[in-house]
Amino acid sequence: MSDLERAFVQAAMRTFDGLCFVVPDETPSVDNAPLPLEGGAWVRFEGPRCGAVGVWIRGHVLDALVSNMLGSNDAPSAQDRADGLCELANVLCGQLLPELAGEQATFDMRPPQILPDERVPANEKAPECARICLQVDGGQAVLALHLHGPKAGASA
Amino acid sequence: MALSVLIVDDSRVMRTMIRKVLDLSGVVLAGTLEAGSGVEALRIIQEQPVDLVLLDINMPEMSGIEVLNRLRQDQKTARLPVVVVSTEGSASRVAELRALGAAFVRKPFAPENLVDAIVMALGGQSHVGPRTSIRPSSDADF
């Protein structure tokens, strides 16, 4: 695993633990047995590095994650599921950015967008530089980082 | 003094989460109000008494930074205590917010982080009683 992938995993661990009170398995799994997709979200950022972070949740775990965020045992609404996905992407992006350019660097993060499937948005120009699949509470979280410019591994 | 707190975030999930953390944090509350956008937040602040604003930055249409700037430009709200609750927490961003008289807490946050930021925004005044854990695995009623 590269330094950048390791930083990505650690950012994901902090995000799921802090938002959903769920700790993913720390070792990324080989993504060769995808579970059914529940939804995804995409956040673009600009600053010393420009790119985007994507989050896709698979395997009937999204309701539990969002219910934990809401502190409720009720099944979340479709809007809450979308909001929860967006917050996961938003917080993951915010946790990762200092790893890309240091704590001093300021980034502008765009409001998250919901993705209808596992495809990266067609207008995304930055190439993918990291993709990991984590086991989360019986489901899967697939996380992707797209970055413009030189590979960020050296600064991660 | 019990506080009337306005939570500003475009995500209903995040507003709910912040409200639950606030309820369990020990901060003495007169009530909580919610706004889903910067425009709605400014309207509420004009219409109702608000003692403290918890403000997201990354919102469509009007960002939290713009809301904060507008509050500071209005004599009636220039000194209104604000805690920015955001995912992007670089040192320069935090310094920018401090220069605008706002405290900062980074998402995701523990209740004690939120309380510390609230106390800072209120100029060190304490409105805090006993707090409760928010984790669902605990015996708290979250």
| Rg measurement of chain B, Å | 14 Å
SS strand fraction of chain B:
15-25%
Distance between the termini of chain B: 25 Å
Give the class of chain A from helix and strand content and strand pairing: alpha+beta
Identify the overall geometry of chain B.
globular
Number of strands of chain A: 6
Number of domains of chain A: 1
CATH topology of chain B: Rossmann fold
Give an account of the 3D structure.
- The complex is a heterodimer of chains A (156) and B (142).
- Chain A is α+β, with helices and mostly antiparallel strands and 156 residues long.
- Chain A has one domain: CheC-like (Chemotaxis protein chec, 3-Layer(aba) Sandwich), CATH 3.40.1550.
- Chain A contains 3 helices and 6 strands.
- In chain A, strands 1, 2, 3, 4, 5 and 6 form a 6-stranded antiparallel β-sheet that branches.
- In chain A, a hairpin with a 4-residue loop joins strand 1 (37-46) and strand 2.
- In chain A, helix 1 (3-20) runs antiparallel to helix 3 and helix 2 (62-70) packs across helix 3.
- The longest helix of chain A is centred in the middle third of the chain and has 24 residues, at 78-101.
- Mean pLDDT of chain A is 90; it is low at 151-156.
- By secondary structure, chain B is an alpha/beta fold.
- Chain B has a single domain, classed as Rossmann fold (3-Layer(aba) Sandwich).
- Chain B contains 5 helices and 5 strands; from the N terminus they run βαβαβαβαβα.
- In chain B, strands 2-1-3-4-5 form a 5-stranded parallel β-sheet.
- In chain B, strand 3, helix 3 and strand 4 (82-86) form a beta-alpha-beta unit.
- The longest helix of chain B has 13 residues, at 12-24.
- Chain B starts with a strand and ends in a 21-residue tail after the last helix.
- The A-B interface holds A 14-15, 17-19, 21, 66, 68-71, 76, 79-80, 83-84, 86-87, 90-91, 93-95, 97-98, 103-111 and B 10-14, 16-17, 20, 58-60, 86-93, 96, 106-109, 134-137, 142.
Write the layout of secondary structure elements.
The complex is a heterodimer of chains A (156) and B (142).
Chain A: H1 3-20, E1 37-46, E2 51-58, H2 62-70, H3 78-101, E3 108-109, E4 113-115, E5 128-136, E6 139-147
Antiparallel strand pairs in A: 1-2, 1-3, 1-4, 2-6, 5-6
Helix pairs in contact in A: 1-3, 2-3
Chain B: E1 3-8, H1 12-24, E2 29-35, H2 38-47, E3 52-55, H3 64-73, E4 82-86, H4 91-99, E5 102-106, H5 111-121
Parallel strand pairs in B: 1-2, 1-3, 3-4, 4-5
